[in-house]
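PROTEIN DATA CARD
Card holder: D-glycero-beta-D-manno-heptose 1-phosphate adenylyltransferase
Chain length: 159
Origin: Shiella aurantiaca
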Amino acid sequence: MNTKLKIMTWDDAQKTIAQWKAAGEKVVFTNGCFDILHLGHLEYMEQAQALGNRLVVGLNSDASVKRLKGNDRPINEQEVRARMLAALAFVDAVVVFEEDTPQALIEHLIPSVLVKGSDYKIENIVGAETVIKHGGEVKTLTFVDGFSTTSIIEKIKTL
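Structure generated from the sequence above:
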């Protein structure tokens, strides 16, 4: 499959998700910067996908990552990060968002399940209220210890 086809506009993703839901599929959504893809990301997204039939990943744009993480980030540009995510077999769609949070994207897509890491409390997860209001679920997943983009960058700096 051409991985570029999994990278969708907001409207294309909305239409695709509506089709999946009409076919009875449960659509899981998560989001992040995914700057340097690592084992923690893979484990997290595999667990997220297992909560439904389809996994949609909201990806922070380059400008959004820079605002959230600082001027030295992202390491990889959004097109590269989007393609890497799209190449994963368990990711069905990647949608880039410019804002600092995925709130507007979640409101646009209305996934069946919203997933974040266990470092979040459900009541503090952006978009949780929207998903629950539309009959969906919000879940948290445990991270794999010892893996983060920041720790990888720090390790590289010491080499």
